[in-house]
Amino acid sequence: MVPKTLLLVASLMGAALAAPPFAGARPSKPCKPSQSSSSALAPASTSAATSAGTSAVATPTTVADPVATPTLPSTGATDLPNPPEGVVLKHIAVGHGLQNYTCANTSSTAAATGALAVLYDITSLYPGTAGTGLTEEGFAGLSSTVLFSQTIPLNLADPSAADPATPALPEASYGATADPFPAPADLVISGMDPIAFLGRHYFDAAGTPTFDLSASGLFFSGAKAGGVKAPADADKGILSTGAVDWLQLGDSGKGLSSGVSYVYRVVTAGGVAQTCDVSGAGAGSVPYTAQYWFFGPSE
Length: 299
What we know:
Blueprint: H1 44-51, E1 87-103, E2 111-121, H2 136-140, H3 142-149, E3 197-203, E4 209-213, E5 218-228, E6 246-251, E7 262-270, H4 276-279, E8 282-297
Antiparallel strand pairs: 1-2, 1-8, 2-3, 3-4, 4-5, 5-6, 6-7, 7-8
């Protein structure tokens, strides 16, 4: 399998800006990254300089530039509801890991049993962020870029399955060990500054979706509040099964959350289960990536 990597031409500036509050309006549906675009993951200021025939070295934009105000992506059709007033954007992350399923038998429907993912902070890469923001194409394409260029950042029973260069394997080959998370580490994509480790996503013993943003001291115990289908042209993933739904999660009501009130899973790539007649009876896992947007109280 040929990895679907993007060509990267510029290093990002290291300083990250604080996340501004959510503005409410949505941009048009994010497009998938062009495989031939050499500047897709360069900062927007770098791309402009390159097109003008000047150096491709990233330089910070001036203080006179407008401050970027992140807005939730749109599917181009039915969208998730906006977060309510009174909450602000805390972080945007790219999550990379596994969607887990089980099949009772080969004629049943695969049942979701949770997910495991490592989260990396991409807030400062949002388009328009002074000095560090990517192009719109590059930012929208991060899910695909990470899925097809990065090793799955989990402890797998078959370590070779974590390598994106390994041809697609049966779902059972992607299973994680009982201790699935390695030590925290930043995400390193060629040509970019390291993307900081933010935390981990998992389902607790009660099946509750949980986000431990240990790098920022935030924690979220959630419950599904809404969902819409991913765009028809969303990246179908390593197994070519399709992109999992976009979701809105609200608080679980268990009193466990701290600093986060809502989580949105958007810009998904991969993660849909194979049919049980293909995967076979038993447990299986499917690689996926997604953007996660975290909202919480302003104080």
